Amino acid sequence: MRVPGVVFATRELLPQAAGDKALEQVANVATLPGIVRASYAMPDVHWGYGFPIGGVAATDVDGGGVISPGGVGFDISCGVRLLAAGVARDELDPERIRRVMDLLDRTVPRGLGRGGLWRLSGPEELDDLLIGGARYAVEHGHGVPRDLERCEDRGVLDGAAPGEVSTRAVERGLQQVGSLGSANHFLEVQAVDKVHDPETAAAFGLRQGQVCVMIHCGSRGLGHQICTDHVRAMDRELQRYRIDIPDRQLACTPVDSPRGRAYIGAMIAAANYGRANRQLLSEAARRAFATALGVGLELVYDVSHNLAKLETHEIDGVARHLCVHRKGATRALPPGDPSLPADLTEAGQPVLVPGTMGTASYVMVGLPGNDAFHSACHGAGRVWSRHQALRMVRGERLHSELEARGIAVRPASYRALAEETPDAYKDVDAVAAVTEGAGLARQVARLVPLGVCKG
DNA sequence: ATGTAC
């Protein structure tokens, strides 16, 4: 290990299933060339591909630091978007919630494969979207300019290289703009159940009882294919760069190399695709809310939790150019950060933490003094594998249990629903509390689900 | 996460 491994957790939140490799992965990441400060794990850490999910690692770009696709994840730019509805929970009876959920059920594309909301004209237009991200979507009528003000990076990262995206990735991506996908992805109707910090909540446009929409999805088959392509290419070139790693899933290459630049260009293209995807899904939610309830949805924030970003941080008193990998970890900018939108500068960055369909989700806010390169948790974190969840739970039964608790569930499939049983996850309330206790971010509001449109 | 395998 070149640096320590630092895990923010209580004993209860530590991965402890027999054979779980998450902590070993924290140590493996600490061996990467150019890593600085520490290999970090957030309280929701669990076993992933190469890097743990919930892992944060920064490498020194000018000191031979590497970039690793496994430190970003297969679902490049997977992230969360929160919208605030112009209606309160006590204004909606169960019948009106059913009505909007039925409409979402019919209009939100989801599940493995399947088409998306936006049929692009062809590869040329996809290239434009990979370069323009959510901004491209808004320019083509999918949303309003204010949406972009509330997106990380204003909805688009510079530096996309569509030429580094394989034709196979393009083929997969063409049909899926505006689709949730499956597994833990969802579109939920939620209500603010508790406000921990009224002043910050107000700055975010949230108040007690407020109905919200939370969208969790990523870059679908396009991001997955880019990850697959570039892991393979880096794996073949490890010896050329004399990189010695304890796990081939950590395949990596210097950031400042042709292969590193190629991956970053493709990764940014996928990031922009993921942002456009969430923008399209927001518009579907807006149509459903307008039709069923006659109310609008204002964007609170949109943030990725699977991404590597080139950022400047001070290391031992010197400003360094770093490649910060956040895999299942949310950037959490503190108040005053210049890259925040003007109306959030005083409050800090909203940190969106989706829980499970039967429990809570959190809105947190970034804090000063976060040594993990301004990063925080991204969710509850799995404790059961999907396979184990399927052995323990039947989707039909879970569906009726959630409905009996007043949560309207619209699943893509019962199998996928069972895999996502709340029992398969850590206690999100504990994850949020420990994230705050560790000084990574502060709790602002707790949200509970009213309806779940499940991928 | 994922047309759940080149």
Automatic annotation (TrEMBL):
GO terms for biological process: RNA processing; RNA repair. It comes from the Bacteria. Its cofactor is Mn(2+). SUPFAM superfamilies: Hypothetical protein PH1602. Transmembrane segments: none annotated. InterPro entries: RtcB (IPR001233), RtcB-like_sf (IPR036025). Mn(2+) 1 binds at residues 75, 185. Signal peptide: none annotated. Keywords: GTP-binding, Ligase, Manganese, Metal-binding, Nucleotide-binding, RNA repair. It is an enzyme of class 6 (ligase). Binds 2 manganese ions per subunit. The active site is at residue 378. Mn(2+) 2 binds at residues 216, 305. It catalyses: a 3'-end 2',3'-cyclophospho-ribonucleotide-RNA + a 5'-end dephospho-ribonucleoside-RNA + GTP + H2O = a ribonucleotidyl-ribonucleotide-RNA + GMP + diphosphate + H(+); a 3'-end 3'-phospho-ribonucleotide-RNA + a 5'-end dephospho-ribonucleoside-RNA + GTP = a ribonucleotidyl-ribonucleotide-RNA + GMP + diphosphate. GMP binds at residues 184-188, 305-306, 354-357, 361, 378-381, 454. GO terms for molecular function: GTP binding; metal ion binding; RNA ligase (ATP) activity; RNA ligase (GTP) activity. Its EC number is 6.5.1.-. Gene3D superfamilies: tRNA-splicing ligase RtcB. PANTHER family: RNA-SPLICING LIGASE RTCB HOMOLOG (PTHR11118). Monomer. Belongs to the RtcB family. This is tRNA-splicing ligase RtcB.
